[in-house]
Amino acid sequence: MDIYLNNGHAFPVPVAVADHLLGLASHDQLKVLLFVLCHAGETLTEAQIAKSCKVQPAAVEEALVFWQDCNILQNAPAVPAVSVQKTAAEAPPAQAAPVQPVQTVQQSRPAAAVQNSSRPNLRPSEIAERIQKDPAVAEMFHAVESFTGKRNHIIDNSLVWMHEYLGLQPDIILMLAAFCAQEGFNVRYMEQIAVEWQERGITTHKLALDDINRRTEARSYTGRIMAMFDMKRRPTTKQQEYIDSWQQSGFLPELIRLAYEKARDKKGDEITLESIRYIDGILRRWEKAGIRTPEDAAQEDAAFYAAKKQETQTAGKSTSKSHREADNASFDLEEFKKLKNKF
Questions:
Q1: Residue 322 — pLDDT band, cuts 50, 70, 90?
Q2: What sign does the CA torsion over 336, 337, 338, 339 have?
Q3: Residue that finishes a domain, picked among 203, 222, 254
Q4: Which of 73, 251, 319, 339 gets the highest tally of CB atoms within 10 A of its CB?
């Protein structure tokens, strides 16, 4: 297929971008780079770049760091505006600053660092080298992109960290990514689970699947509780701890609903940590009393109100008796006065 460039203004783009970095750069990062290259030498603000590229200001900052790490853009002086300096692409080919090839990486990390859980900050060229060297890692990156919609440097760096520094194999990381993508992919949530898996020794398909099934069941339980409480947002960490403890204790959602209705009478409709604690108090009292179903709770309520009614009736009878005794005492006193007046 023959493709020709239309006449008009043009600007150079480093060859390394097309040859090595298209698969690593995100859509937003490419847009920012093209805009910056087109306006090389000018002083640009993040807001100006974001508006022209129709991206968020945070995406502009991330893109600039990405291309600086790749040695495509030079670091700018620290000034209020984002001053975009001359790039390697601007200089004439004979004088162009050499762009570090993707295949060449900086000094390799010592083997002992692989077991360290501290988070590295890898350059895109380092990540690219790992993708080229290990087909399993390359497949992992490709598959994760199908879950996330698009990758960025943060996700790429995290995947390498989980593999090399936490020791999770690419296929285990894929299982985790697929699970995290069920309710909207969140790389920080994925990292949190990855750390738990490392600490608990979850390194096989069976162990990973068992934990995923447990978490899926917990999600379903939490989802029912959220719908029951009409919660618009995910529970806070502390609220989730209470909900998890209810699931572990085997409380039926129907029993929790009954406790929730009782709590609403005391605490109002809004679900706060205080109301969650109040519900937990009701459930724990029922647990000690052996109440496990709404029917058990209804029987306890019936017995309570019956005892209360009996107590009220008993108190009423005692009051009536006291009144009669007082009346009798008054009558005897009047009789005594009559007898006394006769003498």
A1: low
A2: positive
A3: 203
A4: 73
Mean pLDDT of 190-210: 92
Residue 328, pLDDT score: 55
**Which residues form the domain of 24?**
15-90
Helix axes 294-341, 253-267, angle to 10 degrees: 40
Coil, helix or strand at residue 82: strand
The 10s digit of each residue's pLDDT in 22-40 is 766 778 888 999 999 988 8
User: What pairs with residue 82 in β-bridges?
Assistant: 44
Q: What is the pLDDT of residues 100-140, one digit of tens each?
A: 333 322 333 333 333 334 566 788 888 888 888 899 998 99
199/240 same-domain check: no
Instruction: Transcribe 235-287 into DSSP letters.
Output: PPHHHHHHHHHHHHHT--HHHHHHHHHHHHHHH-SS--HHHHHHHHHHHHHHH
Is residue 329 one of the residues assigned to a domain?
Answer: no
Domain count, the chain: 3
User: Which SS3 state, helix, strand or coil, does residue 160 take?
Assistant: helix
DSSP 18: I
- Nearest in space to 166 (alpha carbons), one of 136, 135, 192: 192
Q: Which of 137, 197, 138 has the alpha carbon at shortest distance from 170?
A: 137
In a domain, residue 45? The reply is yes
Residues 196 and 131 grouped into a single domain: yes
Q: What is the pTM of this model?
A: 0.44
Summary mean pLDDT of the chain: 76
